[in-house]
Amino acid sequence: MPDSSEDLEIQLLLEALFQRYHYDFRHYARASIKRRVLQAREQLGFDTLSALQGALLHDAAMLPRLLGYLTVQVSEMFRDPGYFRALRELVLPHLKTYPSLKVWIAGCSHGEEVYSMAILFKEEGLFDRTLFYATDINPDALRAAEAGVYPLERLRKFTVNHQKSGGRSSLSDYYIADYGRAVFDKALRSRVVFSDHSLVTDAVFAEMQLISCRNVMIYFDRALQDRAIGLFRDALPRHGFLGLGSRESLRFSAHADAFREFVPAEKIYRKRAA
Question: CA 20, 75, 245, 203 torsion: positive or negative?
Answer without folding.
Answer: positive
